[in-house]
Amino acid sequence: MTTAALTHRINIGAANRVASTIRTFKWVVIAMETLTALLILAILGNIQSSTGSQLAGYLWIPVLIGTPIAAITSWVMLGWFEHTLRLLAKIADAS
Hints:
mainly alpha
């Protein structure tokens, strides 16, 4: 089979749909990370207010630092996957 025959079998629309699904998944993951952090902060705030424990206050720090790091990491990695797939689809479409 020639290269031209292989090129016509590639469905560029399918690759773009998968890339769009990755983009949607990326934002769902970031939203879930944010909501999880808010839930943890609410639980820690409830523990601190009901018991007066300062330990719960100190546990906020890793949540406030870790959540943005996790969100940025998800955004970068899934965005890179999406970009790479779209780029490969464009290359396949151009050939």
